[in-house]
Amino acid sequence: MRKRIQVLPKFQQHLYSLVLSVLCMAAAAGISSAYICASPGNSANVPLIFAFFLALISCCTTGYVYGVLCSLFSVLWLYIIDTRHSCRLDFSPAGYPVTILCMTAITLLLGSLTSSLAKQSASLAERERLLAEAEKEKIRANLLRAISHDLRTPLTGIIGNSQTYLDRHADLTEEEKLSLMTNIYEDSSWLVNMVENLLSITRIRNEDMAISTNEESVEEVIGESLQRMQKRYPRCRIRAQIPEDLILLPMDAILIEQVTINLLENALSHSGTDEPVELIVENHPEWVSFTIRDHGSGLPHSLLDHLFDGTDYSASHTADGQKGIGIGLVICKTIIDAHQGTLTGRNHGHGAEFTFTLPKKKGTYEN
């Protein structure tokens, strides 16, 4: 509680502490008076009532002043209760000085303990913040390296093929010219896809990972993704399994389409087989899962632990001559995290599969 108070302005801290102290002492005085009236001659438990409220004040107010003042008030109130018939105060060593010292000591100790705990909590929070900043900086650096790598590769291909065509176009056969133009087209398409990925990631606000969601039909979102895949890859073979029931999920449809397309493209490009890619949607009580499964060579074991953290992108340039995974999986992970979902990747024995889930209930990510 004290940690929450310390973030307030000084004036508000002291105002809150003063009000709380007055209310606690009023409550302690009222309860103790009622207790004595209900049980005359049994005032031995009254100090315990004040001790409880003193502990509450020590834990919930700023500094030590309020606890010390309230402990003095408590002792004074005990004087009044105990001497209301004799009308005299006993300041002898056998009287209340010991009570004053004990209550003050308890108040100071509790105040010191809560202050120490608040400082430790603030220190831990600051340490966690620094670690989070360091992790963000690491991901940012890895993402920049990935972008640099994935931009340089297709650009190098485009420049090389176009330079070859310009220098030797008179000597090239029609088949060689077609091959060069095909390579330029494929590299250009790769760049377009990458720009779409980067535009998708900018739809998510960096500070709070906030996105705007609407209730969308899973069948329509998947259907749109498959249509876009068919336009880009007319010969692609994708086998989709979608429940017949209408499933509505809170999502940003464009972002989820981009995730689905990225995962399908990876499966088509890196599976190393002509077997159809499977897209399986399963309806669960609390979430819906989307699995993209291929039946090819699977994921390199060296990348299984680094699929979504943006590290070791140089290894993503596979031996099959296809461009690597690049920043696609990092972007997919960011989008799914913003939807409060999960994204995992693994080998299933006869290829690779990626599964992402989306919750059915709207969460804190909704604007």
Which ranges are low-confidence, i.e. pLDDT below 50, for 5 or more consecutive residues? 85-94, 312-322
Helix content: 55-70%
Number of helices: 9
* Helix/strand/pairing category: alpha+beta
Computed Rg: 35 Å
What proportion strand? Answer: 5-15%
Question: Total number of β-strand segments?
Answer: 7
The coarse overall form would be elongated
Tell me the distance between the termini: 29 Å
Main sheet attributes: strand count, strand direction, barrel closure: 5 strands, mixed
Mean pLDDT: 77
Strands of the widest sheet, in order across it, are 2-4-5-7-6
Order of secondary-structure elements = HHHHHHEHEEHEEHEE
Structure description:
With 367 residues, this protein is an alpha+beta fold. It has nine helices and seven strands. The protein has helices at 2-6, 10-38, 46-60, 65-82, 97-168, 174-201, 218-232, 253-270, 328-338; strands spanning 214-217, 238-241, 248-251, 277-283, 287-293, 342-347, 352-359. The strands form two sheets. A five-stranded mixed β-sheet has the order 2-4-5-7-6. The protein has a two-stranded antiparallel ribbon with strand order 1-3. The longest helix has 72 residues, at 97-168. It is elongated.
